[in-house]
Amino acid sequence: MDKTICTCDLCKNKLCARTVSIFSSLDADQLSEVINLIVHRQYKKGELLLLEEEAVNGLVIINEGQVKAFRTSPEGREQILHIFSEGDFFGERNLLREQNSPYSVEALEETHVCLIDKRDFQVMVRESPDIALKIMEALCEKLDRLENTVETMGARTVDARVSAVLLEFANKYGKPHSKGIMIELPLNREGIANYIGLTRETVSRKMSHLQEDGILEMVGNKKVLLLDRPALEKAAE
Fold first, then answer.
1. Relative to the CA of 66, which of 84, 155, 186, 190 has its CA 20 to 30 Å away?
2. In this predicted model, what pLDDT tens digit does every residue of 137-180 receive, in sequence order?
3. In terms of Cα–Cα distance, which of 182, 171, 234, 235 is closest to 207?
């Protein structure tokens, strides 16, 4: 995780900690304590922020950009586990215990991150136990959401999985358009396939079917115009 520290100008004066769910319930004074611990780093597209089994030295907040967390199977196949974008974070499991990273993390585009060193975080928690309790509550909620997502995705049909991931991207990256919602996909077809455990050909075929049904319109390789959200939601059930 060692990287040249950036200036705060790269964060465009945003208080990055405010965008993170585990800090959302903190009051102004408590949030100020967190912000004082933050240092800033940046990574180019394709750079690794973290390697699988590498020690995680703190909490990493995505201030700007996108990264993917992935594992590589013994056969060399990449399995994408998470897409982290602005306001997302990782490394929280190692803040209070020793645990190496269960995955690698790679920048999908130029990415700016904010880092809270593990030792600084532990000092803050010892001095302000109320912060620790609030963070633990928020982490439990995050784990509940992740478990629900895994259970739901595993039980879905292939068609539903493709529709569900497009809805996920619409919620996270979609922008209003005169015809619906323009989605800037964080991954190409192969990346989406690795994310939901399908082949590239299956993802492409299912997306073509959705286009034929008038539910969406593909705009190049990394954009999709969602024309009929209710129909996509039904397909994701």
1. 155
2. 767 877 776 676 666 566 678 899 999 999 999 998 999 999 99
3. 235
- Which of the 8 DSSP states describes residue 6? P
For residues 150 and 216, the answer to whether their CB atoms sit within 8 Å is no
**SS3 label, residue 15:** coil
Q: What share of the chain is helix, strand, coil (3-state, %, to 5)?
A: 45, 25, 30
Question: How many Å is the Cα radius of gyration of the chain?
Answer: 19
3-state secondary structure of 230: helix
Chain-centroid distance, C-alpha 228: 25
Name which of 65, 50, 156, 142 is nearest 105 in CA terms. Answer: 50
Structure tokens at 143: 């784990």
**Which domains, and CATH codes, for the chain?**
8-154 (2.60.120.10), 157-235 (1.10.10.10)
Neighbours of 29 (CB within 10 A): 8
Note the pTM of the prediction, 2 decimals. 0.78
